[in-house]
Every structure is written in C-alpha cells, then in structure tokens.
Automatic annotation (TrEMBL):
One of its GO terms (biological process) is carbohydrate metabolic process. It comes from the Bacteria. One of its GO terms (molecular function) is isomerase activity. Transmembrane segments: none annotated. This is Aldose 1-epimerase.
C-alpha cells in the first residue's frame, strides 16, 4: 500500500482485531480482519490495493446505501405528484443503483482507537452524484469490540419538503466452495432479467437457508431481495470452523443475497430498508419497505457483525 493510500485510511483496533475505513471512497469499510493463533482471518472480503488506488467502492469490504437501496427502474419515479429524474446523476448503471452516498466522499470525525464517526452531506446540484433533489445529511457510527463490529446509520432530511428514503449496507464476504448461508425469510422477490422485482413468493433457496445445513453459496444464481427476514443471517465456513452473524434492527426489514453463478468469488448478504424499485412498485409499504422523512425528520438504525471461531 502506498503512502498516499494509507494516509486516507482510518484504522480501528481492538486487540488482534482490525477495521480499515475509507471515508473518501464512499464512506466504505475497506477491511475487517483479525489475527488468531498466528492465522489471519478476513471476516469481510478485503479491498485490494488496486481497488483502493482506483477509489472503487465496489471493491471495498462494505459500503453504505443512501438514500435508497438497490435499483430504481429507468432512474425515475413519481413522488408527491412530481416526476424525479435521476438519469443525470453520473450513475453508470441502466437503472439508478444504491443512491449516491456510496459514490461520494465522506468526512471523518470523532475517531478513537476502536470507534469512528463518518459524516456525509448532500446538497442537490447538477454535478454528477448530486441529482437527488432532496438535501440530507447522514452519519455512520462504527465501533469495534472483542465480539462484534457495530454500525449505526443515521440520516436527517434537510429539505423543506418530504423526502423518500431508504438505507442499508453492502458487505462482501469471502466466498469459497464450502461457504454456507443460514437465514429465515418469508419469501423471495422474483425479478426480471434486469433484476427489477416482480412479486414475492416461494423459492427453493428459502427452505435451503432455513435448513440445519444452510444454503451453499453456490446452490443458486441469486441477486434477489428477501421479504420478512428474522433480521439475522449467518455466513459460515464449516471447513474453517468459523462463522459471522449479521444482526439488524428495524427498519432494516429486508435482506439481499447476491451470489452470482457467473462470479463465484462474490457473495453479499445485505441489511436494507427497502426492496429494489420500491418507489415504482404498486404494492403495500409493508412489503416494499422504504420511508418518507418529513422536513427535519431523522431516522437511525443499527446492525452488527458478530464473529465466532470454534
């Protein structure tokens, strides 16, 4: 790692456990690891030097999703009777993806040995990444201890009108041939070929994740939202006698699993507050999630990763 890159990272430590934060790369977590009995353990997929040098959030260990999660069809929606066009915000995807906070720099503050607060301020403009027409601010409070890594995301609507809002985090986990996913969900959102949800219903992966053995990360080709989860999911590497459990509180009422067959090195299990395209789906809010923040209104939610080595 070169000096320029290292100077922009924040290191949190608790004993042999370490977290690297990359505030300027979308407020991302770049690594979460520890050394145990002389063995290095990556709990999240670490950012590579190339990803850090390229300032690529998709190459980080995890990054925040604000002010919405997943895709918005054709980068447009109607809110409060007015059309909202996100096609000029610099998003390189066919449908607007994950909001804008992951593609813009955050500012670090209140850093200690094992804690840090990251700040983000969005003021609408015509600049790339700034086309979201509502002003808002957000923070991430990140804390590392002997058992877990905890993240609390808070956001406040700074606009003088109501703002649609969603949030989440996008972690990547090490994926091997023996990786298993354990979770309890009510249904999977089935999707179009370009990954826009159509309906929530049964799928074999729902039963597989709930089984004692869990679901193999290679069992299905997944990039799907899941409805009504227990807000707990465990990613296990039984051949390595270790696991990590993601636990979340409301409004992280939805979960995304990304385990693409075409990229067998990628695995994401994400806590989110809304399903993809929730602003365009003609179903009830209970199924889609998402919120509307009134002027000055705030929202805050916490999730944590608890690690275990047997």
């Amino acid at each position: 790692m070169n000096a320029a890159t290292a100077d922009k990272l924040i290191e949190l430590r608790h004993g042999a456990r370490r977290v690297l934060l990359a505030p300027e790369i979308g407020g991302a977590i770049a690594a979460f690891d520890e050394t145990r009995d002389g063995r290095a353990i990556d709990w999240l997929r670490p950012a590579t030097l190339a990803a850090l040098a390229a300032r690529d959030p998709l190459g980080m260990a995890s990054f925040p999703l604000l002010p919405y999660c997943n895709r918005i069809r054709d980068a447009s929606f109607v809110f409060d009777g007015a059309p909202v066009d996100l096609s000029g915000d610099g998003n390189a995807f066919a449908h607007a993806l994950h909001g804008n906070a992951w593609r813009l720099p955050w500012r670090a503050g209140d850093v200690s040995e094992s804690r840090a607060r990251l700040h983000f301020l969005h003021e609408p403009s015509r600049a790339a990444g700034r086309h979201w027409p509502f002003a808002y601010e957000a923070t991430q409070d990140i804390a590392l201890d002997a058992l877990r890594l905890t993240v609390t995301i808070s956001a406040r609507n700074l606009s003088d009108r109501p703002m649609p809002f969603g949030m989440g985090h996008h972690p990547y986990y090490p994926r091997t041939r023996n990786t298993r996913i354990h979770a309890r969900v009510a249904a999977m959102w089935h999707s179009t070929p370009d990954l826009l949800p159509t309906h929530a219903g049964p799928h074999p992966c729902v039963d597989a994740m709930a089984s004692n053995e869990g679901m193999s990360a290679d069992a299905f080709d997944l990039d799907n939202n899941f409805a009504v989860w227990s807000r707990s999911a465990t990613i296990a590497w039984p051949d390595e006698a270790r696991s990590i459990t993601l636990e979340a509180c409301a409004p992280f009422d939805h979960m995304v699993v990304y385990a693409p067959a075409a990229h067998p090195d990628l695995l994401c299990v994400e806590p989110v507050s809304n399903v993809a395209d929730w602003l365009n789906l003609d179903v009830g809010r209970a199924l889609t999630g998402g919120a509307v923040l009134l002027p000055g209104e705030s929202v805050s939610a916490t999730f944590a990763w608890t690690t275990r080595v047997d």
